[in-house]
Amino acid sequence: LCPVGRRAAASRRLLAFTRRLSSSSEPQSVRNIGISAHIDSGKTTLTERILYYTGRIGAIHEVRGKDGVGAKMDFMELEREKGITIQSAATHCAWGDHDINVIDTPGHVDFTIEVERALRVLDGAILVLCGVAGVQSQSITVDRQMRRYSVPRLAFINKLDREGSDPDAVIGQLRDKLRLNAVAMQIPIGVSGDHEGVVDLLERRALRFSGPGGEEVEEGEVPAGLQAAMEEKRAELLEKLADADEEIAEFYLAEEEPPLGVLRAAIRRQTIANAITPVFMGSAFKNKGVQPLLDGVVSYLPAPTEVTNCALDLDKDEEQVGLTGVSSDPFVGLAFKLEEGKFGQLTYMRIYQGKVGRGDTIQSMAADRRKVRIPRLVRMHANEMEDVESVGAGDIVAMFGVDCASGTTFTDGKTKLSMTSMFVPDPVISLALVPADKNAPNFSKALGRFTKEDPTFRVHTDDESGQTIISGMGELHLEIYVERLKREYGVECSTGNPKVAFRETASTRSKFAYTHKKQSGGSGQFGRVEGYLEPISSDALGQGAYEFDNQLVGNMIPPEFVTAIDKGFREAMLKGTLTGSPVMGMRVVLQDGLAHAVDSNELAFRAAAQGAFKQAMATAKPVLLEPLMSTEVAVPAEFQGTAVALVSQRKGTVNSMEGAEFVTIDADVPLESMFGFSSDLRGVTQGKGEYTMEYKAHVPAPRDKTELMVKKWKEQQAGKSEE
Q1: What are the DSSP E strand ranges found in 105-259?
Q2: Which of these, 305, 303, 304, 322, lies nearest to 313 by C-alpha position?
Q3: Is residue 281 within 8 Å of 157, Cβ to Cβ?
């Protein structure tokens, strides 16, 4: 097409989309999907093509903003500079007769909360994989998150235009590493520089993509050289489907060919049941394979009414209740993401049941049960907004002027239902943050906004130094927030050395029998507790958080004081006896005790629990725990030995190595040893190496490190007492 023709075609797509947007959609024709993957697998590039082919945007722009525009979904200036997705971004598009709500999520493990909350509210997902690197560390993390919320998925093997791409190997990794029943829906027509398109295995047809943006899909005969491979892969698809679906199994055993409609229905049925994972392939950057993937989203991923969503009935002791996904039922929605915009707080909400409109009054199911009016309701298109009057079940929208916390459930007041909470991982790294201007008015405001938006970003003031301490999921995570403080609020900050989140635990069972007694005229304080504490798991010290087991017999301690004892132990565990680090992986068993008719109260038993904890820890052989990171280092084969040596220097344990031209090294490395690793890796690999890491577990620290930390802590305490 000439430039004028291309502009006309783009205008027609945009006009078709606008008409589609103005009409309301039934839940059956809605798809809520997320696009998730390891960093640099091509998620945002894929999303850009999806928006182009559905008529949502008129031109394709690339990641990093090389053309001065940048990909639509990476709208933050920092995202375009660094070429990574930092915040999940939502948009809405239409494909055929279906509306698709799309959320593009970050691939870097430091921003994993963005993936977590997106998957919490989505009905389906596309797992994007690099055709060369295959299943990588963050692919495994994303898969685990999808399993946590039972999200059906399609897989898309991207970057088949790159040298060394091998879709068969990637499908093998999906089966071996992720334990997915992956079934290929296509085979490629050439790979690397010869990649032209794909072969549709169901319909036995070749699909090639032409035009400046790959918008023209040309169907044709399958090349003679691929006929045998097509039949082999098609037979494999039928076999795997027959193992999962009874209807197809009957055709398979009778050696009959299932009709296409029956095949598609079976694939849809088993994809929604998470029994199979259909695999599509192509190259988003080269504009190949995206339209068939969109067909797969519509054909195989579930509508909101086909997914089981449950809420807790607050009027019936949090009894689990199934939500219908029907717009005519009482309204239930979940606020899953917050953003501070120029018009105030922007609250993203998923409508699970019922409908809501501009001007409606809805009720929060948080403790305050506050009623709020919705002044403005919008659909999001990255950072652009389109006002809507009302939305129904299955939709994802945003509200202005509704002040709430992330994870708040809203209803119309007719029901008292609350959605289950989202999993939020604990931070693993901390930094001291010092503003250049201590009187900067925006410093506290910015930190307050960031902590409200991101549950994994924490802020507290150090009791000893008085410094502001920020905590998060990694160096990049905190670096981004420091940069945002400067750009968005004009607050320049310097940072101290990173501080690792050490923990403590007991290594053996230890008994306690502690009496708290205080008399100062009038009624005093009295409380006695007896029992023991022990590690939750003696094989894996530090596993789990905290457990309280009440084994009291009789009323030696009145039941109303047991909660205070539990609270006292929880408070005591905030500061261990070795280095003052929080204690984890502990079980407290309360067996006996004593109360006084006049002097016993909640305060006395809280104090008794805290004294009992210190008493028991003195003989429990406490252990210092440090965070261990699951680390994946990817380097060209010629730097394999150098990279392994670098990991070993940092006290890492290499678990496995895979790959030929590009080697992936899987290792476990203490977090404290990983600071500055990125610069060292780039230095020894001529800038060609990259790595990712994620928290694995807290494990016992080496003796020399423990002794050093204990000595340092004692010196700090001694200096504090002298003052």
Answers
A1: 124-130, 153-158, 182-184, 186-189, 197-200, 205-210, 216-220
A2: 322
A3: yes
Higher pLDDT, 80 or 439: 439
* pLDDT exceeds 60 at position 86: no
The Cα 310–Cα 41 span in angstroms is 33
**What is the crossing angle of helices 260-272 and 246-253, to 10°?**
140
Q: Can you give the pLDDT at residue 272?
A: 93
Q: Taking the CB of residue 563, how many other CB atoms lie within 10 A of it?
A: 14
Q: Which residue has the higher pLDDT, 198 or 92?
A: 198
Q: How far apart are the C-alpha atoms of 178 and 503, rounded to whole Å?
A: 31
Q: Is the separation of the CB atoms in 10 and 59 below 8 Å?
A: yes
d(CA 131, CA 129): 6
| DSSP category for residue 28 | G
> What is d(CA 190, CA 329) in angstroms, rounded to the nearest whole number?
51
pLDDT digits (tens, 9 = 90+) for 25-50: 566 788 988 888 877 788 888 888 88
pLDDT of 473: 78
What are 679's two structure tokens?
């610069």
The residue-averaged pLDDT of 700-720 equals 86
- Number of Cβ within 10 Å of residue 32's Cβ equals 27
Looking at residue 279, its amino acid is V
Residues in CB range of 450: below 8 A, 6 or more apart: 457, 459, 481, 484
Report the alpha-carbon distance of residue 111 to residue 126 in Å, rounded.
Answer: 18
Q: CA 334 to CA 313: how far, in whole Å?
A: 15
Cβ neighbour number for residue 707 with a 10 Å cutoff: 12
Residue with token string 């119309």 = 412
Could you tell me if 99 and 18 are in contact, meaning their C-beta atoms sit under 8 angstroms apart?
no
Amino acid type, 694: E
154: which 2 tokens?
A: 């399609």
User: H/E element holding 289?
Assistant: none
Report residue 531 as tokens: 């029992």
Strand partners, 340: 345
Place of tokens 């890492």: 652
